[in-house]
Predict the 3D structure of the following.
Amino acid sequence: MSAILKTLFNASVLLLASASAQAYQSEMIHNKNGEAVYELRIFGTQDGAYSMDDPVNGARSVFDLDDNAYLKIRGAVSRWAEIVSLKPGYVPAIINVGTVSGQNARAGTNVTPDPDSAGLLYLLLPQAALLNKLDSEQVQLPLAEVVVGRINFETAALRPSQLPLNDRADYAAVIFHEFGHTMGMIGVAQDKWGSDTPYIRPFLTSWAQGLRDDNGNAARPEQAVLCSMCNNAYDPDAFDLRKDQGYFTGQHVQEVLDGAMPGIPVRILSYRRGQPIGVDTDYMGHSELRNSLMSHQSYRNYTNMMEAELASLQDMGLQIDRRNFYGYSVYGDGLTLTSNNGFFARNSEGTAYLPGQYNQATQGVGLHIYGERNTLTQAADLLSAGPGGLGVRVDGSENTLIIPESTRIHAQGWYGRGLQFSYGREHTIVQRGEVRAEGEDGVAALFDFGNNAMGNFADGIGGGDYRGSWLLNDQGDLAPAEFLPLALQGALIKDYHLSGLLSGKKAAIQISRNAQVENINIMQGARIQGDILSDYSTRQGNGKLFVTHVNFGQKADEQGRATLQADPDFRLRYDSNIQGVDNLAVVIAGGESSLNGQHQLHGLRVDAGATLSGNSSYVINPEGNFSNHGTLSPGNSFGQMTIQGDFIQAPEGRVLIEADTRQHDRIEVQGLAQLSGELKLQLQPDWYADGWSLSQNTVFQATQTQGGFDLLTASLNSPSLSVHVNNGGWFVSRQAAAYSPYAGNPNAVAVGRSLEQASTDHQRPLASIYQALDFSSADGSEIGDALNQLSAGAYGAQLAASVRREQLVSEQLRQRPGLGKDGWQTFIQPFGGRYHWQLSSNDVDHRSQTYGVVFGAEHRAAGSDWSLGAHATANEQSLNIDAPYQAKSTLTGLGAGVHALYRADAREGWKGLAQVRMGLEQGKLNRRIAFSDYQANPKSDWTGHTFAAGVQTAYNWPLGEAGSIGPVLALDYLRYSRPGLSEEGDAGSRLQLDSTRAHSLQASLGLAVSQAWELKQGRRLQAEVSASWEQALLGRKQTQYAQFEASPQTGFDGRYARVDNHALALRAGLTLQSSERLRLGVSAGTRLLGNSRADISGNVSLNWAF
């Protein structure tokens, strides 16, 4: 590869000559802004001369370029079109492309005087074009030619990789290199007195102006050049390169290098294996930064320019937004620094970053570490989304990169790389922050020397050179370890300490075939999305493979570095693949790791105290094994592990198998299983029939076994089940009194016994119920409440509430004041009541609220003491049934009846009332069942019937002029019926209830006192208070039979209270006779000393006579 500075021809002569040769393929190359930057003229064998000097009789292409060549040339030139910035009025530069027969590639151009330098500086024509310093005739001519020989180029698809990807020469990188020469980096001398007698050219280019010799002296026109292998005589005024330590410098270069070196090194000698082999006749036309693409070194693993090299173009006058392609570079050695330099999109002027916005440059680099033994903390975000973008590239050796928790490093574009370590040895990474490369083919952390852009082997350009950890292949000769450069004597990565987020679409971590990594330590806080891949397969001097340890669960120190201690709190679920059968050895060091994927490993070890779970298949290298010293538990509940290779269960190791009646964990060893230690069965919640069993051979299988498990054990967290080990397996038994001993009342006992006595066939439909009971709290504390919820207790409470509601309606009729007037009268009486029933443990506490109205009409004949009438009622009742039953009910009642009053308004002597009523109830009830992990909401609705009859008599003695006092005796009968019903809801707890009929007969005996006052305008106010003792005369309990709908043979009786045994009823009321025809009333009452609490009721009444 070379660059040729051609003789400068008169522009007008070339213009005339070129007009006669127009046969070529032309393609315009645009930048990302859509501006035309270059016109490529590609000459085939039939297209005439490609020579820019002699377009008529000059050199012609000797072979035609294929589609691969077109693609790669276009890609390389497009990169340059993106890098350079254009001045207003720029005319696209014409570049000729041709072919030659040799195994070489080169670029050639001419120079023109810089009109602004008074003849002191000459510019290459492409430089001058970018600076708008060519005249109108010059811009119509070809400004450079790029020539390609018969090189063994790669033919892979074009990728924006920042590493060469193939063994063969990288086509696009070679063209990028050659094109770079036309930007100014070109040889500055020519032989004057024969071979190896270099003198500086009579004119200085911008590259020559920036060159310095070993002593820091600038070059001068026609100055002799001294070097150790040159043939020039000593001259004290010569450009002295006898130490071959020349360099290029300039303001921008110094800004980038920051004192790390005097400038960009250049060389006048050629080297092989570190030794000079002759004079490089391109005479300082290359950058000799280590492994640079723009170098003349035998090994180059870059595909683009480093930042210092872009800075050299700026120093040569080109307009480049360097910060669009590099965020920050470190060329120094032995530094400890914190970088607050971010990498983001640029503003439209190219003068500042736009923090938080993603950089879109092709092959942008957020941070480049070129130097050695540096410790750098990246404290600012690096956000790239351009093709081939890198978050961080690290070369050199022994560098430590620290990524704090708050830092984001993103390379989200196509072929992005979050971290790329590309050269050297014993680097360290401490990652607590976030690294993402989630674009197409993205890799979050890449450890790869890449390939040689010139080709790896002897058929490369100038002979191949291939490198890696412990590897230098020089044209097919492998260098012994002791002769390797120091940078290759060791692992590329010593330690990767990961406790942050690492996410890559193609891979989270990729280790190439040439990069050794010693340890990847995955610690608390780490999250990994994407595969972990390794192609490394290299043997040590003892014949054993180099192994990368992937350690899960080591404890981190305060700096985020792994210690040798296990972290019992470590938890990680990883759902991708770990593949590196000749290299990767996984160690589960502490805590719990769940690996789920297809894994190909050199080996795997579970350390004592650590747990490995997940659903995975493992292919183990025959030189390694899968050993368990801790706990091996397939699945993330139920699952399977398949191990293709040898398995060793250490004496302290344990295999933990989860199982239920339908599924179980399984380990399959396709190889030799050397067994000892423990095999433990952990039964999971399910319905287990009495006598259910599972065999050891069902859960653990191996092609070949040696030894056996020392111990078979089982665990079962159940108050009602037991598991036993017998004959290489396990079986389950249920206690005869599994549930009833935990019941808190006889009704719950009945439910428990019905479940205990059910046969296996009758249990099966209730499997969810049995499972929840069997796997409730091990002390049985949940079973008592569960049995209550499963019972028909809520319906017992509902029946009691319905009876109490109907009693309340009857009370309203008894308490209604009569009107002492012949003829018709109507009445309406809104009422309400509420109570909270708190009973014994065998009954069901509940709260009820009722609102309704009684209305009707009655008639008293003239001279008669009797009033006869009819009435109707409508009411709404809401019922809340307390824990543990947890149910709600709504009850709507309608009724109609007849009644008779005797001397309803008598102040003295006998008075009385009789009533009969029939009614309907529309009921709904929703139960909530929740215990252990069982949830259900059975519900039902029905239409019930009611019948009520009652009599009341009283005797009054006058008290003063307008009062009375006397006893009151009442007897009320009530009949309530509800049909049989079936609930809706979960089949396991859904009940079928038999129809039920309830009878109530209540007697009350009390004392009533009234007092009246005459008011103005003929109005009259009367107050009344009463107290009575209420006593139930029939049994207060009601029996309800219920059965599980899914298992009708499993049923039970329940006995529940339907009425209070007794209560003290207190009532007070006021009645206002506002006219002869109208009477208004209000009353309130409460019941004490019964089972009810907060039992209150009230009404208002209106009577109208006509």
About this structure: The chain has 13 helices and 79 strands.
